[in-house]
Amino acid sequence: MAKSIRPLNDRILVQRLEAEQKTAGGILIPDNAKEKPAEGRVIAVGNGKILEDGTRRPLEVKVGDKILFGKWSGTDVKFDGTEHLLVKEDEVLAILEG
Fold this sequence. Notes:
Structural class: mainly beta
Radius of gyration: 15 Å
Mean pLDDT: 83
CATH class: Mainly Beta
C-alpha cells in the first residue's frame, strides 16, 4: 500500500529545491558550506485555517506552487525517504510565479 500524507489545517508539506552549486562568479560551493535553501515546491496542503468564528479559510497556496519561506521556518520531516519541510501558511513569504 502506497503511503500518503495530508497536512492538517493551515500546514503545508514542502520539498526544498536544491541550492545553487556555484556562485555568480563560477566558484563551486562545497556541500558543507551550502545554506539550506529557502525555496521549495508544495507537495501537499491542509484543509485551511480555522478562524476565530469557527469557519475555515482555504489556503492561498496549492500543490505544485513554488514558494519562498523563512530560513528558520517549519519542521524538517522525512517522508518516503526524502527530506521535506512542514510549514504553516503564515511562514510562506511569497509564491514564485512564471
